[in-house]
Amino acid sequence: QKEVEQDPGPLSVPEGAIVSLNCTYSNSAFQYFMWYRQYSRKGPELLMYTYSSGNKEDGRFTAQVDKSSKYISLFIRDSQPSDSATYLCAMSANRDDKIIFGKGTRLHILP
Amino acid sequence: GAGVSQSPSNKVTEKGKDVELRCDPISGHTALYWYRQRLGQGLEFLIYFQGNSAPDKSGLPSDRFSAERTGESVSTLTIQRTQQEDSAVYLCASSLQGRFVETQYFGPGTRLLVL
């Protein structure tokens, strides 16, 4: 079993819909959870960062961590065509540990 | 201010040739990371530089891969005797203080194709 599993998609949703992106992981030591957005032919950029379990909201984006289920989610409300990108989850056990990335989910928001 | 820059943007080479990829981090960032992103795969850690400390080379896949960094500035990733499986996007990132979960700012990547 890979350490981090992420459905590669593509996921296509109409503009304005709520998007749910998910990752599962196997290492119970992971405490730091991140979501990166990567536009085509660009480097990833950090979207959300959470520590341990719980929710974190930033504008239209909500990150959710359920450590008991080893499951993390990113919700995008009122999705826009500009949200079309690849979303990578990433996680780490300690602040100085290497980050383990998921393969990324390709998201298309249809106008 | 300027972000992380990488050159070349694209590189096509023949199997067996050496290639050199360059990364210019954000000024003042002490930490620099190299990652490899194969098609349909997540980012794979290669090497990490933090200030004057010895680099963490634990992610380099073989001894054909090496990297250097001059002080807290430019870094070069060298791949010797390239193989077709080296084809990937090579991403460089930098961060202010150098803890992995700190925000890493990525460059646009160098797309390497080995024929």
Task: Describe the model.
The complex is a heterodimer of chains A (111) and B (115). By secondary structure, chain A is mainly beta. Helices cover 0% and strands 54% of the residues of chain A. In chain A, the strands form two sheets. In chain A, strands 2, 4, 5, 9, 10 and 11 form a six-stranded mixed β-sheet that branches. A five-stranded antiparallel β-sheet of chain A has the order 1-3-8-7-6, with no helix packed on it. Chain A is globular and about 40 Å long. The mean pLDDT of chain B is 93. Chain B contains no helices and ten strands. In chain B, the strands form two sheets. In chain B, strands 2, 4, 5, 8, 9 and 10 form a six-stranded mixed β-sheet that branches. A four-stranded antiparallel β-sheet of chain B has the order 1-3-7-6, with no helix packed on it. In chain B, a hairpin with a 5-residue loop joins strand 6 (65-69) and strand 7. The interface between A and B is medium-sized, with 25 and 23 residues.
Q: Outline of this structure?
A:
Chain A has strands spanning 4-5, 11-14, 19-25, 32-38, 45-51, 54-58, 61-66, 71-76, 85-92, 100-101, 105-110. By secondary structure, chain A is mainly β. Chain B has strands at residues 5-7, 10-13, 19-24, 31-37, 43-50, 65-69, 75-79, 88-95, 105-106, 110-114.
The largest chain-to-chain contact, stated as pair and per-chain residue counts, equals:
A-B, 25 and 23 residues
Mean pLDDT of chain B: 93
Which structural class matches the secondary elements of chain A?
Answer: mainly beta
* Beta-strand content estimate of chain B: over 45%
Uncertain stretches of 5 or more adjacent residues of chain A: none
SS content category of chain B: mainly beta
SS elements, strand count of chain B: 10
> Strand-residue fraction of chain A?
over 45%
- The overall average pLDDT of chain A, rounded, is 93
The number of strands of chain A is: 11
Q: What gap, in angstroms, lies between the N and C termini of chain B?
A: 37 Å
Largest sheet of chain B: 6 strands, mixed
Shape of chain B: globular
Helix content of chain B: under 10%
Kindly state the percentage of residues in helix of chain A.
under 10%
Number of helices of chain A: 0
Distance between the termini of chain A: 37 Å
Contiguous runs where pLDDT drops below 50 for at least 5 residues of chain B? none
